[in-house]
Amino acid sequence: MAPQPAPGGHSKGDYPWWLVALVAIGIVLAVVIIANDIYAQVFRTVFNGVGVTIFVTLVGFALATLLGLGVALLGLSDSVALRQISRFYIEVIRGVPMLVLLFYVAFVGAPGIVAAYNFLTGPLIQAGFSEPLMVRDFSLMWRAIIALMIGYSSFIAEVFRAGIQSVDQGQIEAAKALGLSRYHRFRFVVFPQAIKVIFPPLSNDFVAMVKDSSLVSVLGVSDITQMGKIYASGSFRFFETYSIVTYIYLILTIGLSLALRQVEKRMRRRDGR
């Protein structure tokens, strides 16, 4: 009998040789970085952007998750108008490339927000109680975070919608019969079951955002990619620089993927699967 696939797409008898190979390559590269002054200097420079990359990813994904959940709930509303608004938002945002959305938010949306703020606070500004907001006061990093939030929220909304709709309708009807409010039905009946379906694709989106956070470098935000671009343009050591950039991103994405996979396995064990 053929071995049955284990959670994660591998057979139970499979040994993760791919992971062993990656770890071995990672150790070799770490030794090279320690032993070679050029690689060590590149690593120190590029590593300065890790904090920004992590911050942009965590904040952007948290905001995208909240916005995506809100859009998904609108799409599941009893109101036809709200459902149409949700679908309109999802289809439009999903159809715009992330880089284009980043430029649009940074150079069209941000000035629009500043102009709207100055218009609304005009009386306070004229009275001397407030200062007008300048476009340059709107941080480029926060423009990038807002763009990632908007872009990913459309995909996350579909993840939440699919997960919520996967819950058996009979259980929802039973919760209604018990007199639970809409909020309590969602909190105690729907969401605990939906999260089992939601978590795997949601974790994939999280890993994807780590990679897409590199797009913020086009705005000059000092993330990993931007620090690499600055060093490479000044030293002309493109091979060494982008090898280190790739190395750091692989550490972040593969490490995060493995951690999230362990969380998913624990959830399955807890449910007795």
Automatic annotation (TrEMBL):
Main location: membrane
Domain ABC transmembrane type-1: 50-260
Keywords: Amino-acid transport, Cell membrane, Membrane, Transmembrane, Transmembrane helix, Transport
Record GO cellular component, one term: ATP-binding cassette (ABC) transporter complex
Metal-binding keyword on record: no
Pfam families in the cross-refs: BPD_transp_1
CDD domains assigned to the protein according to its UniProt record, in alphabetical order: TM_PBP2
A GO molecular-function descriptor: transmembrane transporter activity
Membrane topology listed for this record: Multi-pass membrane protein
Name listed for the protein in its UniProt record: Polar amino acid ABC transporter inner membrane subunit
Species for this entry: Rhizobium grahamii CCGE 502
Source species taxonomy: Bacteria, Pseudomonadati, Pseudomonadota, Alphaproteobacteria, Hyphomicrobiales
